[in-house]
Amino acid sequence: EVNVVESGGGAVQSGGSLRLSCVVSGISDRMYVMAWFRQTPEKGREAVAGVDHLGSTHYDGALKGRFTISRDKNTVYLQMNDLEPEDTAMYYCATTPGKVFADWWTRSELYMYWGQGIQVTVSS
Question: Please, are residues 20 and 7 in contact by the beta-carbon 8 Å criterion?
Answer without folding.
Answer: yes
